[in-house]
Amino acid sequence: MPPKDEESPADYNYGGYLQVKVADAFKDGRYTVVRKLGWGHFSTVWLVKDTLERRHSALKIVKSAGRYSETARDEIKLLRQIADASPSHSGRAHIVDFLDSFPHTVSSTTHICITFEPLGENLLSLIEKNRRKGITPCVVKSITKQILLGLQYLHEECDLIHTDIKPENIMMCIPDIESHIASQLSSSPPPQTHKLPIPPNPRSRRVSALTSHALSVPSRSVHIVVSQPLSTPPDHHRLHSRVGSSASSYTDSLLRHSSSVSTPATSLGSAMSKLKLTSPEQPTRAPLRNSILHIEAQRSSPTRVTPAGPSLLTQTAPHLHEPEPSSFSSSSPPLGRISPESCSSPVSPSPISSDDSPSPFHPVLVKIADLGNATPSKRHYTEDIQTRQYRSPEAIIGRADWDHRVDVWSVACVVFELLTAEYLFEPQSQGQVFSKDDDHLAQIIELLGDFPSRVKQGGRYSRDLFDHKGALRYIKHLKPWPLNRVMREKYLFEHAEADALCSFLEPMLALDMRERASAGEMVNHPWLDVDWKEEAITLESIVW
C-alpha cells in the first residue's frame, strides 16, 4: 500500500507523474532536488536548490498527459501576466511569486515544470492548530485585509478572477526563508521512501512492449517519497514584527488544490440542514496531506471532499475560547435543519477590537496561491468554478455572467471560517429527495433571505432548482436564522460586535452579484482596522 497521504503508484503510469528522487537535477543541473514538499492531482512539488540564484525554490512537476500540460501552460501565461501587470501595487505582494518554467523530457515524455518561492503552511493548517480556541479576530482582520489587497490586484490590475479562494489556497509566508530552510534540513530526518509496484493502467492494458518503453517511469515499480512540508517557525509573528512590511515575498502557490484532500469541517449551514445523518461521532478535519501548498485539481471542478457524518456545529458550537477540552458536548442533537432554539452550547468569542486606527503591521503575511483555475473576467475558461463550501449563488444556479465578485463571496465564507473554525455553508444531499445544490441554496436563503427574482432566472440550472413561482423546487420548509442573530445566539457576540462583523460580511454576501461589494471597496472597511498595541497579549495565544 502507498504511504498514507501520498500519491498513488497508479498515477505513475503513462501520462502521469515523473518519478523523482532526492539529488535529481533539472534544467541542465541548475535545480537539485532536496526534499519532497507535497503532491496534488496535477503534480508533485519538491524543494530544490537553485545553483544559479543560490537560493531554494519550490519546483512543481506536472503530469505529462496533454491535458495537464495544456493547463500548466495556461497557468504560466497567467503567472507572467500577474507578475508584470503592476508590480508597485500594494496587492502584488499578496499574490504567489512565479520564478521560472521549463520543459523536462525523459523517455520521450515531457513534463512542464514551474518554480516558485517556498513558503509556509496554509490557512487551513492555522485553523486546525487553533480549533479549540479559535483564531483571534485581530489576526483574522489582518489576514482578510491582505487577501482583499491581493484580490484587488488580480481583479483591477490583471482583470483576472481567481475562482477558488479558500483557506487551502492562502499561504503563510516565512521570514528569512533561507535560514528557516537550513534549520529544517539540519533537524529533519532523511526523506523516507517506499518502493511500490505500479498497477497496470486499466485504459492501457493493450499497450505493447514497445509503447511501454516510453512510459514516464522506466520500470514497473516506483519509489514514493514521503512529503516533508516546511513548518511555520514557532516565533512566526515575532519574526514578522521585526521584518515589518518589507517582508513581502515569501510565497508559492505550487500546486493547485487537490480534489481528494480529506478535510472534514464543521459548518453553520449544516446546522440548518434538513438532512438527518445517523453517525453520532464528531468529525474533525483530517491531517493535511501537504501543509505548505495546496495542490491542484482538475480545472473543471474544484472540490474539498468531506466525510459522511454530522458536523460539529450541527451537534454543538465548540467553545472556541474555553480552556477545557470538555467544551465539545457529547450529548448534542443529531444533524438536521434545526431551529436556533435547538442549538446548544453557544460560543463565547474573543472581543472584536472597535479601534479604527489602521496599522501596516501584520502578525502573519499571507499570499494568494493556486492561480491554476484563474480566468479572465470576459473569457471564462470554464463555468464549473469554486470549491463547494465557498461557491457563490450565481455559480450554483449556473449563470454565465459571473465575474470577479464570485471571489468576494468566497472571502466572506473564509472570514467566517477563520473566526469560528466552521464552514459558513456545507450542503448535503439526501438521495433522490434533494441535491447539494438544493440544500446549498436553502442554507443561503435561511441565512441571508430570499433571492431577487432576476437572480433566480437565466441560469443553466434555474428550472431544476426553482419552481414556476420562484420557490425552491425540492426544499419547502425553511427556518430563517439571519447572520447577525447567528453571531449573537450561537457565538455570543455582543450586539456591537455582531453589527460590526455583519456590516463587513453582508456586502460581500449580497445575493445579487451586481449589488455585491468589490474587493477594492472592502479593503478599507472599518472592521479591518486593528490597534496592535491593544492586541499584543492576544497575539501570544495564537498557535502558529
UniProtKB/TrEMBL annotation:
Every Protein kinase domain range: 31-528
GO annotations of cellular component type: cytoplasm; nucleus
Superkingdom in the source lineage: Eukaryota
Enzyme Commission numbers on file: 2.7.11.1
Binding site for ATP: K60
A Pfam family assignment: Pkinase
Alphabetical keyword list: ATP-binding, Kinase, Nucleotide-binding, Serine/threonine-protein kinase, Transferase
Protein name per Swiss-Prot or TrEMBL: non-specific serine/threonine protein kinase
PANTHER family: PROTEIN KINASE DOMAIN-CONTAINING PROTEIN-RELATED
BP GO annotations: regulation of mRNA processing; spliceosomal complex assembly
Catalytic activity: L-seryl-[protein] + ATP = O-phospho-L-seryl-[protein] + ADP + H(+); L-threonyl-[protein] + ATP = O-phospho-L-threonyl-[protein] + ADP + H(+)
Alphabetical list of Gene3D superfamilies matching this protein: Phosphorylase Kinase, domain 1, Transferase(Phosphotransferase) domain 1
GO molecular function, one term: protein serine/threonine kinase activity
Keyword Nucleotide-binding appears in the UniProt entry: yes
Compositionally biased region (Low complexity): 325-359
Region described as Disordered: 183-212, 258-359
Compositional bias of kind Pro residues: 188-202
Skewed-composition ranges (Polar residues): 258-270
